[in-house]
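Our preliminary data section would be incomplete without showing what the modeling component actually yields. Below, a chain of 142 amino acids is followed by its predicted structure, encoded as tokens that our downstream tools consume directly.
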Amino acid sequence: SAPATVAAPVTAAAPVTAAAPASLARVAPSAPPPPPPGPLVAQFGAPQVVGAVRAQVVARALGPVKARIKDCVAGLKPRAANATATVTYVIDADGFASTSRGTGDAEAQACGKSAGKGMRLDRRPDTGGAAVSLPIQLKVSR
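Predicted structure:
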């Protein structure tokens, strides 16, 4: 008679694990890094005038004020994001900026208020006082 064949015991093979090739690996998209801080420059919107004052008179008075604001803003700590503010100069009946108030970015307000001290119109308002609101944008320069 023929010899009996004995079957080898069946064992489960160990699972094969391997990392996917780098070319096939999926990477979740990540947010871009925030931009680095940069120096600031001041830009201005059109002034809003309440009261009987000609636009040319306001423009002449704001010229030196804007220059002082630009100098102040240039000295601020660099930032990563832009900012805005509005400073309103209250003009008395004699044409002097008696007080100022602001909204928005605190440092831009401070520059605007400081720069407006001593501002004077070269012509008095036609009737009573006036108010001049100056929008200020702080732009990061890169």
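The longest strand covers residues 130-140. DSSP finds two helices and five strands in the chain. Preliminary results of this kind motivate Aim 1 of the renewal.
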